[in-house]
Design brief:
Layout: H1 3-11, H2 17-32, H3 38-66, H4 79-82, H5 87-105, H6 109-112, H7 116-129, H8 143-164, H9 169-192, H10 194-199, H11 205-209, H12 211-237, H13 245-248, H14 250-260, H15 264-290
Length: 292
């Protein structure tokens, strides 16, 4: 395999909409409120992109050296575990991408103030501590909290703020709904890897509470993300955003798919359902906000 294909695979491109959708929604909401700022939105877009890629590379490195990723896992190949990228090279790549993203994020300070420095530092620390550090979040059942917080509430709320200069409750609510749908990607991965994670003492929520709990998470994400749209509609966001109810409901289909999943192909289909739901939710709700 060509070297660039190895690195493209290591970035996990199918996860990237999870980073970009909150920025899209925040920008559409800012536009609807006549506060859209192209440069600030672009900086948020690329900051989120580099944080997501850096998190993925760090996860590849850390799970590889810890032995969590094994050759018999059902999920996609991981570069370090497969021996096609050395641990030291992957470590340098992860640190480099996170550092570049952090430096890029510094350009947002003129738009939002010096307190954004704390957000940037917290984002980098969380990206690494998701799998690394003395208390790795993913190994202690806090991975879901990380995803909803950083890829939902913070990503959408801060992206809206740097464009408008205003903290908006609607942005936070929308961040919650979006973050929960994004978290379904993590739920599928953890559901698939439950046995291997348990052996590696990776105490994800599905390891702690079981598969039924994980399926309930998917259904709850649908109810809450759909409820958020109904709430925003009642607060004047317009009826067009209700088109997002269709992808929001994907969690019910996802739960059913997980219950019957047996093979790697089955889990891949579940990931596709979750990923497409995030993209569709972002596009349809953003379009609805622009049509107000």
């Amino acid at each position: 395999m060509a070297n660039w294909k190895i690195w493209l695979e290591a970035t996990r491109p199918k996860t990237l909409p999870a980073a970009l959708t909150p920025v899209l929604l925040a920008s559409a909401l800012a536009y609807a409120d006549e506060g859209f700022h192209l440069i600030a939105a672009a900086l948020c877009f690329f900051f989120a992109l580099f944080m997501q890629v850096g998190t993925n590379l760090a996860n590849d490195y850390l799970d590889g050296v810890k032995g969590t990723d094994t050759p018999d896992r059902l999920g996609p190949r991981r570069a370090v575990a497969a021996g096609i990228v050395s641990a030291s090279v992957m470590r340098r790549a992860a640190i480099g991408v996170l550092f570049f993203g952090f430096c890029l994020g510094l350009a947002l300070i003129p738009f939002g103030g010096w307190w954004l420095l704390a957000i940037g530092l917290a984002s980098v620390a969380a990206a690494w501590c998701y799998t690394g550090g003395p208390y790795p979040l993913a190994y202690n059942g806090l991975g879901d909290v990380f995803v909803v917080l950083f890829f939902g509430l913070i990503a959408l709320g801060v992206s809206y703020y740097v464009q408008t200069g205003v903290f908006l409750a609607d942005a936070v609510w929308l961040g919650l709904g979006c973050g929960l749908l994004i978290n379904n990607l993590l739920v599928v991965n953890n559901y698939r890897d439950m046995e291997g994670d348990a052996k590696a003492n990776k105490r994800t929520l599905v390891v702690r509470f079981g598969r039924r709990f994980a399926r309930a998470q998917c259904s709850a994400a649908s109810l809450i993300s759909g409820g958020v749209l109904l709430l925003l509609c009642s607060r004047g966001a317009g009826y067009w955003i209700l088109a997002g109810l269709l992808p929001a409901a994907s969690g019910f289909r996802l739960a059913a798919g997980l219950q019957s999943a047996q093979s790697a192909e089955d889990y891949l289909r579940c990931l596709e359902i979750a990923g497409k739901a995030v993209i569709a939710y972002g596009l349809l709700v953003s379009l609805g906000l622009l049509l107000v």
